[in-house]
Design a protein that fits this description.
This protein is of the alpha+beta class and about 180 residues long. It is about 30% helix and about 35% strand. It has a six-stranded mixed beta sheet with strand order 2-1-6-5-4-3, sandwiched between helices.
């Protein structure tokens, strides 16, 4: 899916994927759990180390990165989203962070992600559905802030590794103030 070309079918697929994963009742696939956990740990390390270009390489060209602003998650065609980005928009965000001139990140936040409760399910097409809990801690200007969230992923096999096709960050405190989060959640 390319965000620039998102049509009704692509939105329907995104909403169905998120709804299915949020309501999953089947036990996690133990054969996929280690793979999913290792991938999420690597992603968290890249983000916490500020290695945004390496992080972007984890994404498929047709990716969607979505931070909805509603609880429960609603169709992005009928609700506001904090972010709804494709690969190109993620490139733009990273380019701005790389300049060092993102005034919202002077000084830059230091982050630490804690990923927990990872679950994974194989999909019929070989992709992997992943759900996890996360707390993204950020320290900036003497303040420590926690951003608890549920992470939802669709991962696609690619050259012996995985690529992120869908990444959804659903904040637990969605009804509270977002604050100035100018780094990558």
């Amino acid at each position: 899916m390319n965000l620039a070309a998102l049509d009704a079918a692509a939105y329907d697929e995104l909403v169905a994927f998120v709804t299915e994963l949020r309501t999953e009742t089947a036990p996690s696939d133990p054969a996929r759990l280690d793979v999913a956990s290792a991938f999420l740990a690597r992603e968290a390390r890249l983000l916490d180390d500020g290695r945004y270009r390496d992080w972007l390489a984890l994404f498929a060209d047709d990716c969607i990165y979505w931070v909805p602003s509603t609880a429960p998650i609603e169709d992005p065609r009928r609700s506001v989203s904090y972010l709804l980005d494709d690969h190109r928009r993620l490139e733009d965000r990273i380019a701005l962070l790389d300049t060092g001139w993102s005034h919202a990140q002077i000084p830059p936040a230091r982050t630490q992600r804690v990923i927990t409760n990872v679950e994974a399910w194989a999909m019929a097409d070989g992709d992997l559905r992943v759900r996890a809990g996360a707390v993204i801690w950020d320290w900036r200007r003497g303040q420590l802030v926690a951003h608890p969230a549920t992470l939802l992923y669709r991962l696609r096999p690619h050259a012996g590794d995985w690529r992120i096709v869908i990444r959804v960050i659903h904040r637990l405190d969605i009804d509270g103030p977002m604050g100035n989060v100018a780094y990558i959640l």
